[in-house]
Amino acid sequence: MPNPSLNWPSLAMSTPSSGDEIAKQTLESVSKSVENVGNTSLVDPSDALSFPEGGFTAWGTVLGALLIQFCGFGYSNAYGVFQDFYTQTYLTNSTPSAIAWIGSVNVFLGLSVGIVSGRMADRGAFYLVMRIGCLLQCSSLFLLSLAKPDQYYQIFLSQGIGMGIATGLTNVPSFTVVSHHFQRRRAFAMGIVATGSALAAILHPVMLNNLINGRLGFANGVRASAALSGGLLFIANLLMRTRLPPQQQIVSYTRVLQNSSRDGAYICACVGMAAFEFGYSFENFYLQLDSTLHGLSQGFSFYSITILYCGSSIGRLTGSVVAGYVGIPNTTIISLLISSAALFAMIGLHSAASVAVIAVSYGFFSGGFIAMMSPLISHLTPEFSHIGARMGIAYAISSIGSLVGAPICGIVLTSHYIWWKAAILAGSVTTGGCILLIFMQVILKMRQKTSSVYSKEAGV
Q1: How would you class 144 by CB atoms within 10 Å of its CB: exposed for 0-12, middle for 13-18, buried for 19 or more?
Q2: Which of 5, 58, 156, 429 lies in disulfide reach of 181, CB 3.0 to 4.6 Å?
Q3: Crossing angle of helices 387-413/96-112, nearest 10°?
């Protein structure tokens, strides 16, 4: 969703009349392009004042986007409740790995459909995309409430496919619309939006556990949550407002993919995000089941995911603040490194205290990483008009980790529930993602050095 007044440096836009002028403009173009990659400011400085950086409309948009995340990925983050309930009560004829595919497909579509929704939002269809996604979200929840016991396909279609597509339609646009109102404070604003899914993951597990396993039962419990989501989504659509005009020229995904495939830092970031999603799905889907099968009280196990996302909510806000001091890349690396350590600690889970420590630790630092995912892609995108496309591509790649993470861990877990094997696998993959982010930071540092060299040669 670009601002048409942006003027990015390009050699094709100039027709110099002498070799000296060509050399000078070449150095200036390379210098500015490299600086943009390592700078959170994605818009020409002359346009900085056009961003309100606050006000009723801007913060109303942030609140609306937060509610979208609350009802979208917030509900997906509560899938651990369904994993436990389906495994022990509702889908007893299915294996834990098969049940995990429902949540995995949900998250996969929630991330990968962003390629389509991000592009549509860039073209000015933001409101249409949001309304379709919100209606589909409510409809899929009500259809889920009609699913019968041991009817795997009914739950897979409504919760896995329907809700996944709905989340995908609203996820990327809810972040990109924040870029219309903020530049200098963009990471902080997006961090606030990211807390929406964490706050929901605190409320939804408590509500769903008490409704589904209580007097209302599965059908009425899901309907009650659907009514809550419908009301919040309605408010969100009233609050969110675009500010920049639609993109006048179509941004070619082929062109963006070609440029991105030559951007080593961007590739490392995308694969690193996919590795994070692999480990995140294991912790999110299996923590409650792990607690229950280790003999902990049902009441405490029900709150294990809530504890996880209490830490995540604090981590998302903290990560946004810390990034302002140490930088977005450094914040993501530190967050992912400690998250991987918390996954390895799952090997020692055996008591209520260990569950609480692991849940809070992993929740806090994974929350910090999640809060930085969208700002990181913005940080690595030199052209403002490509933010929606690049963000959609990045989320699509990271969704592969969400798709295969929980099912593969379920296969390693086996029906005998060998927890240490799954924990080592999830921790190892996440550590690999951290190494890739370190490579990303190295590439960015090299670019900054190259930029300074060109600047000196050009006399900038």
Answers
A1: buried
A2: 58
A3: 180
Q: How far apart are CA 288 and CA 300, in angstroms?
A: 9
Q: In the block, which residue shows the tokens 């530190």? A: 334
Q: How far is CA 360 from CA 107, 258, 277, 351, in A?
A: 22, 40, 18, 14
Residues 6+ apart with CB under 8 A from 82: 102, 103, 159, 208
Measured CA to CA, the distance from residue 152 to residue 186 in angstroms comes to: 42
- CA–CA distance, 166 with 237 (Å, rounded to integer): 14
pLDDT digits 0-9 by tens, 399-419: 899 888 888 988 888 777 888
User: What are the CA-CA distances from residue 15 to residues 9, 18, 22, 97, 300 (Å)?
Assistant: 13, 9, 8, 61, 70
Nearest by Cα to 404 from 274, 278, 269: 278
203 closest CA partner among 69, 91, 327: 69
DSSP 126-159: HHHHHHHHHHHHHHHHHHHTTPPTT-HHHHIIII
The model's pTM is 0.70
How far is Cα 454 from Cα 26, in angstroms, rounded to an integer? 9
In order of 24, 27, 202, 210, the CA distances from 21 in angstroms are 5, 10, 60, 72
d(CA 396, CA 184): 27
153: amino acid identity, one letter: Y
Cα 447 to chain centroid distance, Å, stands at 26
Q: Find out whether 179 and 53 touch, Cβ atoms under 8 Å.
A: no
The pair of structure tokens assigned to 437 is 């982010």
Residues whose CB is less than 8 angstroms from the CB of residue 62 and which lie 6 or more positions away in sequence, other chains included:
178, 181, 189, 192, 193
Q: Which of the listed ranges 120-129, 339-348, 414-423 does the model predict with the highest average pLDDT?
A: 339-348
Report the alpha-carbon distance of residue 411 to residue 406 in Å, rounded: 9
Residue pLDDT, tens place only, 245-269: 776 666 677 778 888 888 889 999 9
